[in-house]
């Protein structure tokens, strides 16, 4: 597939991977809808995009998942249709299970899982009617295997795979595609913004994230995976091997993760 002349909706577009996607895709003669909670930052991203006349901003908070039908109606009015939804928005978490408030678990599920699912379900009837459409979901390697201090995050990301694998099966007859993108460590602010045990932000970068892939490198690999219409793509450095070790040697992965510097 090609991105040319496509209408692409990106959530979490105000920073990190979402911003990187917006900047790269704006060079490829497509139309973009940029969404996140931070409207001012979205307009700043738009100013940095090429072909700004083809970029629209639509504020969106995934925590308000009951309103997604209205949000989709607004999005459809911007360019008349949508070809591809990139579900990129979300938050992370860093805290031991024993200390983590259930409210933190709830918030991760509401934003990373329910918000993403609600938005996609609201758009699904339009994809079915047009007999085409592509859902791209930015999950994580933590959606394939787990790591200490990320219990809420891992739970939400694992849930996304269960839901979207089903959606792919049910709607193959409608020519609807699903691509799950599983990043490893990418040098963004995801660790700084991760929620801790009481729901406050961690506020600092960790070594593994800082040494991860640069956003520009990650985005180019991600877009190639979307163009190839892959079911899943694992994008990172050596941490990607964890997917295959988990599949064939789960006890070995358990030991390796415990010995690693992941915190």
Automatic annotation (TrEMBL):
> What is one term from the GO cellular component aspect held by the record?
membrane
Q: Which UniProt keywords apply?
A: Oxidoreductase
The protein's superkingdom reads: Bacteria
Q: Which Pfam families does the record match to this protein?
A: adh_short
Which residues belong to the signal peptide in this entry? Answer: none
Instruction: Tell me one GO molecular function of this protein.
Output: oxidoreductase activity
Q: Which family does the UniProt entry place this protein in?
A: Belongs to the short-chain dehydrogenases/reductases (SDR) family.
PANTHER family annotated for this entry?
Answer: DEHYDROGENASE/REDUCTASE SDR FAMILY MEMBER 7B, DEHYDROGENASE_REDUCTASE SDR FAMILY MEMBER 7B
Designated name of the protein: Putative oxidoreductase/dehydrogenase
Q: Which organism is it from?
A: Xanthomarina gelatinilytica
């Amino acid at each position: 597939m090609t991105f040319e002349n496509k209408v692409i909706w990106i959530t979490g577009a105000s920073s990190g991977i979402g911003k990187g996607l917006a900047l790269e895709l704006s060079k490829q003669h497509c139309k973009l809808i940029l969404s996140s909670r931070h409207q001012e930052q979205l307009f700043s991203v738009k100013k940095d995009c090429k072909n700004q006349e083809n970029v629209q901003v639509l504020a969106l908070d995934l925590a308000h998942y009951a309103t997604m039908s209205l949000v989709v109606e607004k999005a459809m009015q911007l360019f008349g249709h949508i070809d591809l939804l990139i579900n990129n928005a979300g938050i992370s978490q860093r805290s031991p299970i024993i200390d983590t408030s259930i409210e933190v678990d709830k918030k991760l599920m509401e934003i990373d899982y329910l918000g993403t699912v609600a938005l996609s379900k609201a758009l699904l009837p339009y994809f079915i009617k047009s007999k085409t459409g592509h859902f791209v979901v930015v999950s994580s390697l933590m959606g394939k295997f787990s790591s200490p201090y990320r219990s809420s995050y891992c739970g939400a990301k694992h849930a996304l795979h269960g839901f979207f694998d089903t959606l792919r099966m049910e709607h193959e007859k409608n020519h609807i595609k699903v691509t799950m993108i599983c990043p490893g460590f990418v040098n963004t602010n995801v660790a700084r913004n991760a929620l801790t045990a009481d729901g406050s932000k961690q506020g600092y970068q960790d070594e593994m994230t800082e040494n991860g892939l640069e956003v520009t490198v990650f985005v180019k690999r991600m877009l190639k995976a979307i163009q190839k219409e892959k079911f899943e793509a694992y994008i990172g450095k050596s941490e990607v091997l964890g997917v295959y070790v988990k599949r064939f040697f789960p006890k070995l992965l358990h030991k390796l993760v415990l010995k690693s510097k992941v915190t």
